[in-house]
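Practice record 12: protein with S-adenosylmethionine.
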Amino acid sequence: MDDSIKLADAFGRRFPYLRLSVTDVCNFRCSYCLPDGYIKSGCEPFLSRTEIKRLVGAFADLGVKKIRLTGGEPTVRADFLDIAKDISLLTGIRKLAFTTNGYKLPEKAEAYLDSGLRHINISIDSLKPKQFEKITGHGRLNEILKGVELCLALGFDSVKINTVLLKHLNDQELDSFIEFVADKPISLRFIELMRTGGNHAYFNDHHLSGSAVTERLIQLGWSLKARGHDSGPALEFVHVKSLGSIGLIAPYSKDFCKTCNRLRVSSKGGLHLCLFGEGGFPLRPLLQSDEQREELKSMILKLMNFKKSGHFLHDGNSGATPHLASIGG
Ligand code: SAM
Ligand code: SF4
């Protein structure tokens, strides 16, 4: 066990991984997330570059080793590359990742890598241009696929694809996605559609259990990979004839929360102990000067006692999150 990881909860889980949203703003309109596009709420600004540096520094002191920048669409922030550079230079942070919708990826991939972002997750919900446009509101599939190829050529440490499983919208494409990774060192992860405050009707129409994926993979001769010691809740499948792997993130499955290893901070500094919890605890007041670092760390350690053993999705309670763009998926 790694004793440098100081963040632990009452259920014996440890937290070496922080997902940090840097903005709620997004330039896409994914039908399950922001179907009407981004709508500004409140006038509080997003965390500044300095606040982010203080926040991540404190988490690194507490043993966090992996940071994922997310949003909204993190890359729309004008200072996104500077934020990444700052974090990549912090002692203790070994892995800097980000999740993006892939907007202008061919033009930007090299700059991401140069800023220390060595792990990229790109969201692609369909491999058919028209269907992609229908789901995301943007006809940019070909550009994003070119970006994926470029990321592979540039040598990112990992290139992953996130695909939300959507009944009637992309469930016919399971085999195409599986074939897509056959000749590429990519981990493609199917994510079960999650119910949020704003998508109840959509969820009822399009939620598909991850077991549809598992069954198909097993039928095609794929097998479940043994879990690594630092694996999160994703299940990973491999096949001798495929260079890529297929993952499954199924929050509605039994025991999903047992392997939780991550915390989240919203773009305005709210610490969220669970994606489906009730609001975030405001850390921003403790990000106003470097002298507050010890106080900030004590507060984060104290808050860990409030992390619950699991979510309440099965009771129809998806917490206070209106959509994942608001605290970063
Ligand atoms: N804008 C970036 C993107 O789309 O990759 C990063 C933020 S987005 C909220 C992060 C991930 O959450 C994306 O892969 C997205 O598809 C996924 N996501 C958003 N809403 C979701 C939902 N209701 N259920 C499951 N996944 C969702
Ligand atoms: Fe934007 Fe990502 Fe939400 Fe799509 S999933 S609307 S790209 S934040």
